[in-house]
Amino acid sequence: MGDGHLSAWHPEELESVGRCPVCASTAHRPLYQNLRDKVYKGTPGEWDFYRCEACGCGYFDPRPTPQAVGKLYAEYYTHSAQSIPEYHQLSIAGKLRRILGNGYRNYRFGTNDRPSSRLGVLVAWLMPRYRALLDAGGRHLPKAKPNARLLDVGCGSGDFMLLAQRAGWQCVGVEPDPEAVKVARQRGLSVIEGDINTLHHQSEAYDGITLNHVIEHVHHPQAVFSDCYRLLRKGGWLWLETPNLDSQGHARFGADWVGLDIPRHLVVFTYHTLTSLLQQVGFQRIEPLPYYPLCERVYAMSYAIATGQSPHHPPPLSPELLAEARRAERVAQYDVPRREFIMLRAWK
Fold first, then answer.
1. So what's the pLDDT on residue 2?
2. What is the DSSP letter of 213?
3. Which of 51, 130, 149, 322 sees the fewest Cβ atoms within 10 Å?
4. What residues in the chain have per-residue pLDDT under 50?
5. Cα–Cα distance measured from residue 51 to residue 58, given in angstroms and rounded to the nearest whole number
6. What domains lie within the chain, and their CATH numbers?
């Protein structure tokens, strides 16, 4: 443990992982050592990242305990409500995008957003990448049946819950950040402060559960998936998205790859590791969801980290790096295990 750890953390705030947090193997190799957070530079400590030689996932060791992990988020992104411009504030092009996007979402998810045009459906089917972005933004929600219930784990301030409610779902969220919970409740949403374990008294209560970039932040991913399985009704589904350690972006940028999010992403999965873990807790039918373009954004954010700039406002890619990202995009479209994010749905 380096001086960066000793000066910033009390010994009781850190825990040694020892075994892989996914498969419990002790066989591992150091992938990166003495990493510092280049994005939120006030994050204390230096961190070592290991790769399990049994299942292939990556993890930080040592890591903050569940009681101390909040220190990692002192400068993290806020959970304020997303600011969406009013229709009258948009440019002509922006108004057209809003009308067409609403038209497709109304068709796809069962919302009734206005203003809208059915031409949005035609445009989306003529532009597969655009359609894939809209589908992923709605987390591939199926049409809601009467009294269908949805749980959003790590719901933040509730932006997705609002969309799901407009689509006819009865929504509940769980969120550990008290400020985010406050914002969500002010928006009229039903949000419980805490993690999924706060629902330990429930079972078979939901038709669908979503985890959007959540599972990489938890200390015990198998326990979270077991809770999801218990909470789902028979035939219910789990939707999730998480960074992929086997991605082309990680191979290209190494420790500067944005998917590491040093050291908040306690565990970073591969596609095969994640599907195997889901099967272990009982999910049998698992499918990757349709690809949406990510490589240019991930490459731009990772390049910004590598050059000391903000990934939240990355500079334009050079022509050479843009061409590289587009080549990676073509590979990712057909090679599921090498996509930047793992996005899948599993059924109980």
1. 44
2. S
3. 322
4. 1-4, 6
5. 4
6. 3-73 (no CATH), 146-347 (3.40.50.150)
